[in-house]
Amino acid sequence: MDQKLVREITKLVTDLVRGERKREIANEQTWRVKNTKLLLKNYDILKEHSKDIDTDIDRYLKDVFDQDDLKLRSIAGYKARTNKMMEYTDLMLAAYRSYADKRDDATRRRYYIIRYLYIEPKKLTLIQIANRFGVAERTIMRDQKEAVKEFSIFLFGIVSIEEMVG
């Protein structure tokens, strides 16, 4: 093969690999944002589910179940993991708030949109939030999407940031 043909094939393969990697990254980002939104939408249910769970599974099982029952052990494990996930979520919400408090009004508003829509016991509607901040409902809808993406970075860390700039 001549050098020109080798360069063309190499470029074609490189472009195909690069395109495939971009699609993989886009799918990962979509997955993270989707799961972040799912977590936020079900925050109350998950929080209630994980309430009063002893995360020391063995101690929990000794009090309630026969140690050899693998199915019940698995259920207790799910509850314990849910508890840890909710502790982590609350920690990341606090980190997001700290981040937002140091930024501009729009960033603070995005944090509070997540609080008012998903976290607070008494949820607010988009219109109520828009009125509270003196902006249009469309602004709140746009900010909601951006807030979920931002919070996703707090939940998933550096991988999310690398994919956003990559």
Topology diagram in text:
Blueprint: H1 3-41, H2 43-50, H3 57-64, H4 70-101, H5 105-119, H6 126-133, H7 137-156, H8 158-165
Helix pairs in contact: 1-7, 2-4, 3-4, 4-5, 4-7, 5-7, 6-7
* SS field, number of helical segments: 8
Integer-rounded radius of gyration: 22 Å
What ranges have pLDDT less than 50 throughout 5 or more consecutive residues? 160-166
Main sheet: strands, sense, barrel: none
The protein's oligomeric status is single chain
Structural class: mainly alpha
Shape: extended
Mean pLDDT equals: 80
Bin the strand percentage.
under 5%
**How many individual β-strands?**
0
Distance between the termini: 34 Å
Share of helical residues: over 70%
What's the helix-strand series? HHHHHHHH
Protein name: Helix-turn-helix type 11 domain-containing protein
Organism: Lactiplantibacillus brownii
